[in-house]
Amino acid sequence: MSTIHVGGVVLFGKKCKTLEEACRVAFTGDEIVLHKNVSPQQAAMVPSGVIIRGNNHTITTPRKKYAMIIESGKVELEDIKFQVSKQSGAIKASDTSLTMSNVSIQYMWRVGTREKFSTLWIDEFTEDGKSIKQGTTVNIENCNFQTGIHVAAEQVKISNSFFGNLTSPTAGIRAIQIISHDNRYTNALLNGERILKSDDDTSEGNVSIFGNVDVNNLTAKFNLAEMNSKQLKKYDEVRNNDTALSSGTALLRIQGATGSIKNLRLLKLSPETKELMNSLVDKDFNMLEIMGDKTSISIVESQLPEGQAIFHSGNLILENTEDHLSWRYNPKKTTVANRNSTSNLFNSNEQKQETETALEKMDKLIGQDGVKKRLREIINAAKMNNIRKINAQRNGQEYKQPKGFSNHMVFSGPAGTGKTTFARLVAQALYEGGVLKENKFIETGAEDFVAEFVGQTRPKARETIQKALDGVLFIDEAYGLDETGQNSSFNHEAVDTLIKEMENNRDRLIVIMAGYTTDMRNFFAHGNEGLQSRFNTWVEFDTYSTEELNEIMELQMANSHVLYDENTRKALRQGVKALSQEANGNGRSNGNGRFVRNYVQKVLESRDSRLATNVDQIQNMGPDEQQTVLNTVIVPDVQAAYDSLHKQYQLFQGGN
After folding, report:
1. Are residues 428 and 476 in the same domain?
2. CA-angle at 394, arms to 393 and 400, nearest 5°
3. 66, 255, 315, 527: which could form a disulfide with 92 (CB 3.0–4.6 Å)?
């Protein structure tokens, strides 16, 4: 180990004139110390195992190049200031474990807001670009990166640092695991695929969070009043040129995330900032923005002040929260659950307050009485077993789970009998009972576990499973993972990974496999013994009776606000009776609840086809009469739907 000095008057150690030269002569374990500001003409190629100490000197980047390139190994940087010129960057790294302490990266004054070059580029994706390399880490402490950056690694740890700037392009951090403590973020994207663990962080505008989140004590604020006129103009330019900010300014964005945010504090805009916002092109400001069909987020023990918010899609749970936001939302793509909270969302005619427990919802489902009884037994057993475990831990005792006990389940039975619906309610019930940490339900199939090429199945399967941790992993038609078929080697690797992850995460994961009864029994009979031993609980779903199908049909009609008289009701029920038998014989996937959905859809399509021939007449009606006509189904609509489905079923069965 030796010390290499760049500049200055030194008595011991090697001395170099430039940083590039120092990196060329350095070996693993060496330390490079700066005694002056430097301006590399070419990128300094930093070798593995080197520490660079800047003594708070400045490195000015060469134009259209990086100041440092790190291609492998462990590297440490400390007490360095990077000044970045146009179309250039401070650090580019790959295949490395990089630690940065007291490092700052700032643009030179003449760099414009259209700058697309990432000043810090750490890219640890596999060659196909689909997943992050294992074993790559980035540690950031007491750093200041007021520029556009790109960081992708297996693990990123950040503390006491500042990321992004309102006048800089978006900063992005993506990792399998992000651990963030006491940081400030602006114009930043944080994506923790397995976990984004955030404590005591601050959003200063336009911060988006993705992945599985566990956020505590997050403050969000926005203050344009601190900016001068030139900075305000730059902010307006950034807003109009950065696609990540295309939907407007928001204190916080939640995009495709699952998990919880506890103690969220959204600070109101000052009068000065409100006035400045009105003077800018960007007038669409939201305190909070939620989007993504897979979003399922809990906001817990929080105070949400008056202000605008938008809810595009996903699931939101408000728990012990006072919400005074004025929401815009799509009632067809959003659901809200109330856990001892107040919100304008609950008072809406469209967005109903959800106070029912999962078991109460289950009881209201039509049919499957035996399934309901069995699931209650399973849920109660899981809850009591969890209480025993907590009690043992409180008493300092080792808890031993009863031999053969497992929370994993198999749901078997015909298609359309509600297996997915019941599984989703089981996930909610176990969350409500304290067995699961999150109300999380990840729906998958065999294709989510098995890759096309050798070596890719294991990471793909692991990635799918990791998304369900602390919740329920639902695998539909699980026999697609059959280890005896054409894809036996790939499927074997997927099943082997599943078993290992179930074992490693036994307290954080419940797996429910579902499919047709015969196929599921064959799958387990000829499959991995380790899989068989973990699925001792089977729940068999029954085919719906004709009366139950009629009840389901009438419920779906009511949910669609459909009107009809008694004669039409009789015709609808006769259609269910006649067609349900044909549907059950028309392939395994067309019967039961799926048949009812198809039937109702056909009836409504027939109604709309009839109404379309009288559009002018309908448009001249009064509002009340028009609403009645548009929502009413008559007997000819039912007959047309029956004829269409009958022909379809006959065609598939080879009839005339």
Report:
1. yes
2. 25
3. 66
- With CA atoms as reference, report the closest residue to 543 among 584, 587, 596: 584
What are the structure tokens assigned to 480, written together?
Answer: 């697609």
How far is the C-alpha of 197 from the C-alpha of 178, rounded, in Å? 6
Residue 625: CA count within 13 A, CB half-sphere? 6
Angle at 157 between CA 156 and CA 158, to 5 degrees: 120
Amino acid symbol at 118: S
If asked whether residues 291 and 199 sit together in one domain, one would say yes
pLDDT of residue 99: 96
- In 347-470, DSSP assigns E strands to 409-412, 441-444
The conformation of residue 301, written as its DSSP 8-state character, comes to S
For 121, other C-beta atoms within 10 Å of its C-beta total: 19
Q: In angstroms, rounded to a whole number, what is the distance separating the alpha carbons of residues 137 and 152?
A: 9
| Nearest-angstrom CA–CA distance, 16 and 35 | 11
Asked if the structure places residue 149 within a domain, the reply is no
Predicted confidence at residue 568, as pLDDT, reads 93
How far is Cα 610 from Cα 204, in angstroms, rounded to an integer? 55
Q: Which residue has the higher pLDDT, 271 or 425?
A: 425
Residues 405 and 475 in one domain: yes
If one counts the domains in the chain, the total is 4
Same-domain check for residues 506 and 567: no
Among candidate residues 434, 324, 296, 430, the one with its CA nearest the CA of residue 375: 430
Strands (E), 477-536: 509-515
Bridge partners, residue 181, by sequence: 159, 199
Q: What is the CATH number of the domain that holds 642?
A: 1.10.8.60
Last residue of a domain, one of 303, 325, 351: 351
The CATH number covering residue 441 comes to 3.40.50.300
Q: Is 229 in the same domain as 275? A: yes
Residue 306 φ/ψ, nearest 5 degrees: -65, 140
Q: Which of 79, 111, 143 is the last residue of a domain?
A: 111
Helix (H) or strand (E) holding 53: strand 51-60
Burial category of 526 from C-beta neighbours within 10 Å (exposed 0-12, middle 13-18, buried 19 and up): exposed
Same domain, 508 and 570: no
- Quick one: which of 71, 89, 60 has its CA closest to 171? 89
Same domain, 510 and 578: no
By the 10 Å C-beta count (0-12 exposed, 13-18 middle, 19+ buried), 29 is classed as: exposed
Distance, CA of 248 to CA of 481 (rounded, Å): 44
DSSP, res 38: B
Alpha carbons 213 and 467: distance in angstroms, whole number: 11
In angstroms, the CA 423 to CA 412 distance is 12
Is residue 182 domain-shared with residue 262, that is, in the same domain? yes
| Residue 405 belongs to some domain of the structure | yes
What tens digit of pLDDT does each residue of 372-394 get?
Answer: 999 999 998 888 888 887 777 66
| Band of residue 656 on the pLDDT scale cut at 50, 70, 90 | very low
d(C-alpha 509, C-alpha 499), whole Å: 11
- Which residue, chain included where needed, has tokens 């309610």? 425
Q: Whose structure tokens read 């109330």?
A: 338
Residue 148 domain flag: no
pLDDT digits over 178-226, tens only?
999 999 998 888 998 888 999 999 998 889 899 889 999 999 988 765 6
Q: Is residue 239 part of a domain?
A: yes
- Rg over CA atoms, the chain: 30
SS (H, E, C) 526-563: CCCHHHHHHCCEEEECCCCCHHHHHHHHHHHHHHCCCE
Q: In whole angstroms, what is the distance from residue 636 CA to residue 568 CA?
A: 9
Residue numbers of the domain that contains 101: 1-111
Query: Distance between CA 364 and CA 357 in Å, rounded?
Result: 11
Query: Exposed, middle or buried: residue 374 (CB in 10 Å: 0-12, 13-18, 19+)?
Result: middle
